[in-house]
Design brief:
Radius of gyration: 18 Å
Number of strands: 0
Length: 176
């Protein structure tokens, strides 16, 4: 049960599912290309499903913990504030913050941010898989990791497609 904090990271950590869903669903508003806007909507919506999966894992891991298991696992600090409620925070205990997200309103900047976010999330899943032996936890983590790879591929395709377009859909306003 020492790995509960690792799973918390997947929900509300700086590279977690809550941040991904928020980032993509907000970036779509300023995206000038309908196809990329739709992709951000699709992936952002899928990330909401990932929030549900990670939250279900957390609930299943904590719902029947005894007080001695809570203390022994190091979950006691979390328990003081949230009992066994599912609260989005990082493994270090820092609550989820939109301050870790970026929405630049620029196609290339936002898609580059998304590519990096998916790689950081994949790395988090890889690291958790190195630490956890429980197959009931590993199997959904493997699925979620695979989806991060697919999202990375889709963002890469969108970034390449944008780079092949001639002209810019919007011209930035001059500050001069």
């Amino acid at each position: 049960m020492l790995f509960i904090n690792y799973i918390l990271l997947l929900l509300g950590g700086p590279d977690g599912e809550l941040g991904a869903a928020t980032r993509y669903l907000q970036q779509r508003y300023s995206m000038p290309y309908a196809q990329v806007k739709a992709m951000l909507t699709d992936i952002g919506t899928e990330e909401l499903g990932h929030i549900e999966m990670v939250s279900a894992i957390l609930y299943q891991l904590t719902r029947n913990l005894s007080m001695s298991e809570i203390k022994k696992s190091g979950f006691d600090v979390y328990f003081v504030d949230h009992t066994t409620g599912v609260y989005p925070q990082g493994a270090s205990g820092v609550p989820f913050s939109a301050g870790t997200l970026q929405v630049a309103g620029d196609t290339i900047a936002d898609l580059s941010e998304d590519l990096a976010a998916e790689q950081k999330a994949r790395l988090s899943y890889d690291n958790i898989l190195r630490l956890i032996d429980d197959s009931d936890v590993r199997d959904p983590i493997k699925f979620l990791r695979a989806r991060e790879v697919v999202h990375f591929q889709r963002f890469g395709e969108a970034n390449r497609a944008d780079g092949n377009k001639t002209g810019t859909p919007r011209k930035p306003e001059s500050s001069c």
